[in-house]
Amino acid sequence: MEAVAFSQVRYLILEEADRMLDMCFVPAVIKMVDDPSMTVKSKHQTLMFSTTFPEEIQRLAAEFLKSDYLFLAVGVVGSADMDVKQNFYQVQQYEKRQKLIEILNNSESSFRSEH
Predict the structure, then answer these.
(1) In 14-74, which residue ranges form alpha helices assigned H by DSSP?
(2) Residue 87 and residue 58: Cα distance in Å, rounded?
(3) How far is CA 44 from CA 65, 67, 78, 89, in A?
(4) Rg value, the chain, Cα
(5) Positions of E strands within the chain
(6) Separation of alpha carbons 25 and 113, rounded Å
(7) Entry pTM
(8) pLDDT by residue, tens only, the chain of 115 residues
(9) Is 21 exposed, middle or buried (0-12, 13-18, 19+ CB in 10 A)?
């Protein structure tokens, strides 16, 4: 329907860019950046975020970036950072919201006591 115009885009942000570029979303990204209303690369900042970014996907991503783009990596590319703590909670389908609220409330009180 072409209901979206990109003429005012200043920042184009792709979260989980490696997954988007690796999982058949490339045509959709190309359609967006090649849209006639999209601002030219030199007039907007493109940011791509990913926890992993395999080299072949980085090469593909470069096609959507300015030629002098900056690649910033924290830790080892392609692996989880050891400073990140991951917790897994098994809950029933309709208990997810309550568990999230509980985790957020506990995080907030624990954050206050640490600082």
Answers:
(1) 17-22, 26-33, 55-62
(2) 29
(3) 10, 13, 28, 40
(4) 19
(5) 11-15, 45-49
(6) 43
(7) 0.61
(8) 667 889 999 999 999 888 888 878 889 889 989 999 999 988 999 999 887 888 888 888 898 899 999 988 877 776 666 776 778 999 998 999 999 999 999 886 665 555 5
(9) buried
